[in-house]
């Protein structure tokens, strides 16, 4: 047999003390990291209009032709249901190309965009969205003819069991 090496004995208590010391140092380091400022609770003035212009360009929206199914007051702002139904024959010549959802008081106003075509057969979408507070939700439907339809609904969000 060759020469044997002596393995140093590890004291279990010393190991635990070192581990706890390292963990404590890590926690102290984490505690010293500055916390970034919370984002604004609502879109900046003009941001909603800019978001709408980014979605539909210079088109002038026309009210009507859209039916919205939404609660007047949402129990939970994290999962607010919305169903959008656009009156359209959904033919090759006349169909809905896109449905845009915009929430006017959210930090990021553009909530969702759905791309559609004649193969969809029906211009209808259902979603659950997060709303920060009581606000107007605007729905824009882009037609293949170049027309943009618009509809809006005000949804009140309960915060802490109270309507805001």
UniProtKB/TrEMBL annotation:
Q: Domain Ig-like SoxY, which positions?
A: 53-162
Give any Pfam family that matches.
SoxY
InterPro entries, sorted: SoxY, SoxY_sf, Sulphur_oxidation_SoxY, TAT_signal
Name this protein carries in UniProt? Sulfur oxidation protein SoxY
């Amino acid at each position: 047999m060759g020469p044997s090496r002596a393995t140093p004995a590890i004291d279990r208590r010393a190991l635990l003390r070192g581990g706890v010391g390292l963990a404590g140092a890590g926690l102290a380091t984490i505690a010293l990291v500055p916390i970034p400022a919370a984002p604004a609770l609502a879109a900046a003035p003009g941001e909603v209009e800019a978001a709408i212009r980014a979605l539909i360009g210079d088109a002038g929206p026309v009210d009507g032709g859209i039916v919205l199914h939404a609660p007047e007051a949402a129990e939970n702002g994290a999962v607010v249901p919305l169903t959008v139904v656009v009156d359209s024959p959904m033919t090759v010549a006349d169909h809905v190309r896109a449905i845009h959802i915009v929430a006017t008081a959210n930090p990021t106003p553009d909530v969702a965009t759905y791309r559609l075509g004649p193969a969809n057969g029906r211009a209808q979408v259902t979603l659950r969205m997060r709303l920060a507070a009581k606000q107007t939700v605007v729905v824009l439907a882009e037609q293949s003819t170049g027309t943009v339809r618009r509809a809006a609904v005000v949804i009140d969000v309960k915060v802490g069991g109270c309507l805001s």
